[in-house]
């Protein structure tokens, strides 16, 4: 498994407008990419900091962050982790953006592995 970089860290937020007011207006971060009220991404010195609205059943907003690790071969990375007994999710496609899967670290924190399309 070869991790090439941290692509982003994101926070789940219950109110995208309020979060935008803080990160964009108060902190002065410039929006790099936005997908409606579902996802907003800022470039902070080459690392992406993003905001996401919660999906149904997702943990309470404000209680988590997810590190996203970019890999060259998503399928091989997933297989390698699964072979070590780590519970991994299915690979989920994000259209032209790429694909990802998740697992949890020993403390229960989510780790996301991502590969570009």
UniProtKB/TrEMBL annotation:
Native species: Immundisolibacter cernigliae
SUPFAM superfamilies xrefs: Glyoxalase/Bleomycin resistance protein/Dihydroxybiphenyl dioxygenase (SSF54593)
Gene3D superfamilies: 2,3-Dihydroxybiphenyl 1,2-Dioxygenase, domain 1
Name recorded for this polypeptide: VOC domain-containing protein
Domain of life, per lineage: Bacteria
Start and end residues of each VOC domain: 5-116
Database matches in InterPro entries: Anthracycline_SecMetBiosynth, Glyas_Bleomycin-R_OHBP_Dase, Glyas_Fos-R_dOase_dom, VOC_core
